[in-house]
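Researcher: Re-running this chain for the archive, since the previous output was lost when a drive failed. Same request as before.
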Amino acid sequence: MKCSRINDSAKKVKIFGLNHNNLSGNLSPKFAALPSLSALYMNGNNLTGKLEFSEWFYGKMGRRFGAWNNPNLCYPVEVNLNTVSR
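Model: Regenerated structure tokens:
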């Protein structure tokens, strides 16, 4: 998923959920730059690569972050999966 720049409308997004939409590609760490984002759900797609969000972002999202059931998506070792929605 590519996100090249953030426009004014995107800055107001609070909940971003695209579960089970057959999406592919990398999950851009630019989602963390959305100032109002309080939940990000990308479960059950075909996302690939490594999640490259900061520890701060995972802490901010807590259980409101979900990217499970993406078989080729790698979580960084330092991510505590007990704090990430499953």
